Amino acid sequence: MQNLTRRALLGTAAAAPLATPAILAAQTQINITIAASHPTTIAWIWAMQQALMPAVNQALESTRFRIRWREAFGGTLYRFTETRNAVKDGITDVGFVGTLWEGSAMPLQNVTYFTPFATDNLRLQVDVMEKMTAEMPEMQKAWTDNNMVYLGTCGTETYDLWTTFPVRTVDDLRNRKISAPGVSATWLGGTGAVPVNGALTTYYTDIQTGVSDGTMSFPSGIFPVRVHEVAKYITKVNIGCMYVGGIGMNRQTFNRLDPVVQAAFRTGGKAYTAALTNRVLATSEANMREMVAKGAELSTLPAAERQRWVDGLPDIAGDWARTNEGRGQPAKKVLAAYMDGLRAGGATPGRAWTA
């Protein structure tokens, strides 16, 4: 009933007659719910509030349209496992969609998670994924098939380890429980570690209670949720930058909007992508330094051990491509486009995943 009421409010703009200059000059208010499963202390949610929303508002300043925002961040509407369905089903109008948790429904968006150790250049990775999403119908189809309009890209800096024990060799991970959300569990193949599902919102409690012994993550995500307090050993591994997901808008909501407002939301999506990338790059090293200042112990996995990890991985990308090709998904084409895009941008992947 709440959704029907909110959607009815969205439609009031179209119902008003535009017969006189006075009415034409009147503002038209549009009610929009914007939500996320994570709090605004996390960079990719911060950018929704501090970049996307202001950019939409600014784009509409010289028009008769105004957005009345209803903010529902921090999981107040849905959990991290429900981000796709929340936008798809109209629980929220605009939301962060974590495609890393959607290996079945949105498999092509997870290509970066099946090509670890490919690049630590976040700007390059974001640019490649933005271009692929814009130019490849196969990438857009996952969003449209799930009743969403794609607005912006969320990428993270390179992944490292946060553990309750020191990691000096790959062997130190054997039989250890490591929190690894969704498809990132595949990165532990060959290490002997046991993956435990979770998210930034669960890591602290999982590690504190012994559900896991650490996690693979990134500074801009780990620092705000204070995981370094319960997993003080930080080991730089440079597993690579990843495409975590994006900002989606419910297609029915989008289609009901005036083209001027639709354009404003697309502008907001571009502002989100730029602001998030800048935020992550600006805060990542600072976050790492602050964690060390607060008692974390920082080390770097020796290059030979890192290569052992890379070489010991199963054919993650090949298995992913073959499985999804069997399901009618053009995974090989997407995999080749991604790796070619990285190389064209100057990256030297740690493993030839398309071989």
From TrEMBL:
Domain of life: Bacteria
Keyword list, A-Z: Signal
Entry annotated with the keyword RNA-binding: no
Transmembrane segments: none
Leader peptide range in chain numbering: 1-25
Protein name: TRAP transporter substrate-binding protein DctP
